[in-house]
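Archive transcription. Copying these from loose printouts into the bound notebook so they stop getting lost. Printout 1 of 2:
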Amino acid sequence: MDLDRLMTRFNPIVSWLLRSPLHRLASRALVLVRVTGRRTGRRYWIPVGYQRDGDALVVLVSRARRKQWWRNYREPGEVELLLRGRLLHGRAWVLPSPSPAFRAAVERT
């Protein structure tokens, strides 16, 4: 079993931790992102790793071809985050991997 699949099994536990008063144990590296399914319309929270870049958060999706949630942001859209116990609203978008903006974001993180 690879690490991504193993971590998916822990998502409910990590999500609980990030919502709890104990969130400080993980919230320096993890944030909850609220995603609306493109086909189902179902809303759910997923924990993802992040890096700060000034006022922005950068999320690098490992093995992106195997994951679906980030595709909701191919076009810029509204996003909800639970970061360090606070609900935040913002805009999210995908930086195409061959773009200069993507390379710059990777280099800064």
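Printout 2 of 2:
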Amino acid sequence: MADYPIANGEQLRAYLRALRKTRGMTQQDLADRLGVTRPRVWKIEQAPGDVTLTNLLSVLTALGVQLTVHDPQDSPRHTAIPIPQGSWE
């Protein structure tokens, strides 16, 4: 299984949509698995940063993947992703 480093919301947005499509799932299929409406799945795909971590983890699980936090210092083959500066509020 390949790793896909995500450094920002735009990358996460594209990844979620592409992952759903490679799984052969429509937004309605994913909505049915999650127990939500299709417009809710659309909203999650459009703005994944606006959902709770718990909800994001549910989406990833429904898509058959998991979230992994990787410390780039543990492996020199990975490039460090800079942590965005600014307010966390």
